[in-house]
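In this section we walk through a basic example: taking a raw amino acid sequence and producing a predicted 3D structure, encoded as discrete structure tokens. The instruction is simple. Fold the sequence below.
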Amino acid sequence: MLDALSEDRTGDAARLLASPTHEVDGFGEVDDPPIKGVEGDSFDHPRLWLCWNTHEWRTDYPPPPGFDGPEQGEWDEAGYWRSPTHDEHAALVAAGIAEDSTVTLEQDEADRAAFFAGLAAERA
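The resulting token sequence is shown next.
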């Protein structure tokens, strides 16, 4: 928002300050707006959105059997949301809508080693 204001993009700033709610058919208001313009494409789907503050994908589609991911509320209640399953997220990545956020064990171990080595170097 500060970039929008400093660059005199008042329309962008106003959109960022607008209430982050929207209506979902039959479910009332939910907390996050549908995402638009993902990676240059026009993506607007009322049942799938990118959470504005965590940048996590959410949907209000019913959970598949055995779903154990993050969710809020019960599917048949207003305001329900859940995170996409691994397969659903993979479909978003394949369609170019979402980025692949998969982290391998090797990458995570390398990040850990670099972080703690940096802490040790600061103390030396």
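Looking at the output, two observations stand out. Residues 2 and 8 are 10 Å apart (CA to CA). Confidence is low (pLDDT under 50) at residues 19-30, 33-42. In the next section we compare this with other chains.
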